[in-house]
Amino acid sequence: MSGETIAVEELSKDQAEQELARLAAEISEHNQHYHTDDAPVISDADYDALKKRNIAIEERFPDLKRADSPTDRVGGEVLDKFEKVTHRVAMLSLDNAFSDEDVQDFADRVRRFLKLSADAPLAFTAEPKIDGLSLALRYENGRLVTAATRGDGAVGENVTANARTIRDIPHKLNGDVPDVIEVRGEVYMTKADFADLNRRQEAEGKQTYVNPRNTAAGSLRQLDTSITASRPLKFFAYAWGDTSGLPADTQLGVVDCFREWGFPVNPLMKRFETVEEMIEHYHVIEAERSGLAYDIDGVVYKVDDLALQLRLGFVSRSPRWAIAHKFPAETATTVLKDIEIQVGRTGALSPVARLEPVTVGGVVVSNATLHNEDYIAGIGSDGEPIREGRDLRIGDTVTIYRAGDVIPKVMDVDLSLRPDDSEPFVFPETCPACGSPATREINEKTGRVDSVRRCTGALICPAQAVEKLIHFVSRNAFDIDGFGAKQVEVFYRDGLVKNPAEIFTLKARDEASALQKLKNREGWGEQSVANLFEAIDARRNVDLHRFIYALGIRHVGEGNAKILARVYHSARAFVTAMEAVGEEQGEAWNDLVNIDGIGPTVAHALAEFFAEPHNAAIVEELLTHVQPNDAEQVATDTAFSGKTIVFTGSLERMSRDEAKAMAERLGAKTAGSVSKKTDLVVAGPGAGSKLRKAAELGIEVIDEDEWFTRIGE
Fold it and tell me: Which residues pair with 400 in a beta bridge?
């Protein structure tokens, strides 16, 4: 987690708003790594900690909940290369439990909601949480018609052809089945099959894979079904979505029917009457975990009675009747051989541990994140000692832990094994890439020093320039096929592409060159060059939010880019507005910070980016080569067109996101705070400061029912 972390109960409202913006961007980035790229970079535990902090801040400041709140998000982005499938019943995520006490609290919450006494019978199922890729299989009249990934929970990817190649997935169900049934489960790869696959890859001189989960996910999402068919994928069925009827009235009963229909179901799934039995089963599975044929990362508990599940319903994006009891991270001991400083596109100096390779949870690990210089020194985000103040040094014997992530973390150091000649690690105060000073910013409002040290070289720093170019061509930005990180690094080093605009002049410059033809370079030929130029030309038109995100502006992630695109509609309008933002308190500044989801932190980052003449010049040059598609226009002829609406309180008939989307479709703007420019406030139960502010300013306030009456629904 970057930056200084202030305890939730100590946050001011402004700090909370900035923290929610940071968390939304950071969690969105990790969702991308895990769900879309199948390449996570932090552990499950650290990801869960980010989400728990976000939830805690939203609970303390409910009126600050963002339009792109991670609380309301499931899964990752849907890839453009697959046909989209809208789930008739959303595929939701589960809340997590991390201790036996959390499980007891979950059971107590269920009883309170159902108004059941402590001794009233209440059964739960418990089953391993498979570490794979969620898949929904729709059967009509017993025959498989559609297979879809979870995607973002509402819309997934159509992978029907690939799913048909998996032997565990029946094309036709056995026996008496409902006319329509969507069976849900997990696609995975066994540890032995994964090891065999890597041995074959190595024998053929090909790159090996990191872990079974990512390999299974990547295998299922192949455009070439023969690749999927060649991979040893398996499937466990454990849930359902849309159906014309269920064959049983309990969770266990329906899963038993899955088995009879021809699906593999997990043999460790059992039914229990008490929390004590559930927890005992969890610890049995935990003890057997390393010996299982497949990876698991916890145990899932579900209320067994389906009628009770229906009564319990859902909260936010999770069912009240289920929870995932996560396993603690796996650990191993190895030697810290070196500490390498990497420079990111925003200038952040990130320390990475180079380790003596060691196997942790079946994965060979040779790198680990070290967060920042304070973490190396044994100092926590609030200045408190971590590891009891023990620092980390090159040559130390360290304990590392991982929980499904690609880059694990260093947990502790064994001082008894520290070499006699070891010296404290000195974190550089100059950028290793360009020699510019590297400083730690001070937050003007809190007075705290940022835990991240950043290079001040910006325009002259080659590491930042390369990382910005890699970001520009990345999947969720311009997504230029065949122009990956390695190509960017080589082209930058050789002076072919120094900034994003030069990507789109590469073909013309290559054609004008008499000698230095790209096709004559090592590893290239006429066809590969033609393919690259074709891929570049195909991206001269991209959606506006992709264009904004691709600029690599600090704090402007995918979520904020989409918000900005929706508000400004066109690239020219966006650039003109950003160049006019300037100092605080101006009209353009006020318009920007009043956009729901865009706070002062993001506004400052946008203002600083466009105030730099070099950045502004690159953007202008870029716009001579690309024409971003205007964002979808909203209605202009409704009673709400041009109005600014604020939603506050606990909305009961719609989520906050649904409310804002509804207003925006009607031509309104939604804002996160009440001001003189606010035209209407829609307030639900628990509305507080925004309601008082509206009263002070004489702004009309209505409830949800009146809102639906006015929009004619």
Answer: 332, 410
Q: What angle, 0 to 180 degrees and rounded to 10, lies between the N-to-C axes of helices 600-611 and 13-31?
A: 70
Q: Which residues pair with 326 in a beta bridge?
A: 298
Q: What is d(CA 564, CA 568) in angstroms, rounded to the nearest whole number? A: 6
What is the torsion angle, in degrees rounded to the nearest 10, for the CA atoms of residue 77, residue 82, residue 83 and residue 89?
-40
- Which residues, in sequence order, are CB contacts of 679 under 8 Å at separation 6+? 643, 644, 645, 699, 700
pLDDT above 70 for 44? no
Rounded to whole angstroms, how far apart are CA atoms 539 and 529? 16
Residue pair 245/223 in contact by the 8 Å Cβ criterion: no
Handedness of CA 526, 527, 530, 535 (dihedral sign): negative
Do β-strands 700-702 and 330-343 pair in parallel, antiparallel, or remain unpaired? unpaired
Q: What is the mean pLDDT of residues 621-626?
A: 95
Residue 177 CA to residue 642 CA, distance in Å, equals: 52
Per-residue model confidence as pLDDT tens digits over 61-97: 887 887 667 765 544 444 446 788 999 998 988 988 9
Q: Identify each DSSP E strand in 363-448 by its residue range.
A: 363-369, 397-402, 409-413, 438-442
Per-residue pLDDT, 1: 38
Cα(194)–Cα(174) distance, integer angstroms: 30
Buried b (16+ CB within 10 A) or exposed e, 184-198: bbbbbbbbebbeebb
425/234 Cα distance (integer angstroms): 46
User: What distances in angstroms separate CA 297 from CA 32, 293, 304, 327, one per listed residue?
Assistant: 20, 13, 22, 6
Q: Which of 301, 304, 341 is nearest to 325 (CA)?
A: 301
The active-site residue, picked from 51, 65, 129, 562, is 129
Is 507 part of the annotated catalytic residue set?
no
Cβ-based neighbour number of residue 512 at 10 Å: 8
What's the chain's Rg over C-alpha atoms?
A: 27
Element (H, E) at 578: helix 571-581
Q: How many angstroms separate the CA atoms of 20 and 64, rounded? A: 8
Q: Taking 90 as the threshold, does the pLDDT of residue 265 lie above it?
A: yes
Q: Tell me, what's the pLDDT at 361?
A: 63
**Alpha-helix runs per DSSP H in 244-299:** 251-261, 275-288
Q: Are strands 700-702 and 680-683 parallel, antiparallel or unpaired?
A: parallel
Q: For the chain, what is the largest distance between any 2 Cα atoms, rounded to a whole number of angstroms?
A: 86
For 394, half-sphere exposure in the C-beta direction (CA atoms, 13 angstrom radius) is 12
- List, in sequence order, the alpha helices (H) in 10-61: 13-31, 44-60
Half-sphere exposure in the Cβ direction for 128 (13 Å, CA): 23
| Residue 183 CB neighbours (<10 A) | 28
Between CA 409 and CA 294 the distance in angstroms is: 23
Contact (CB, 8 A) for 175 and 210: no
**Is 462 exposed, middle or buried, given 0-12, 13-18 or 19+ CB atoms closer than 10 A?**
middle
Residue 421: what pLDDT? 94
Give the DSSP H/E element, type plus range, for residue 311: helix 306-312
| Structural domains present in the chain | 1-73 (1.10.287.610), 85-326 (3.30.470.30), 329-456 (2.40.50.140), 459-503+505-537 (1.10.150.20), 544-622 (1.10.150.20), 644-710 (3.40.50.10190)
Long-range contacts of 496-501 (CB under 8 A, 24+ apart): 497/469, 498/465, 499/465, 499/469, 499/618, 500/468, 500/469, 500/472, 500/550, 500/618, 500/622, 501/618, 501/621, 501/622, 501/624, 501/625
The Cα-based distances of 467 to 250, 344, 489, 491 in angstroms read 52, 6, 9, 13
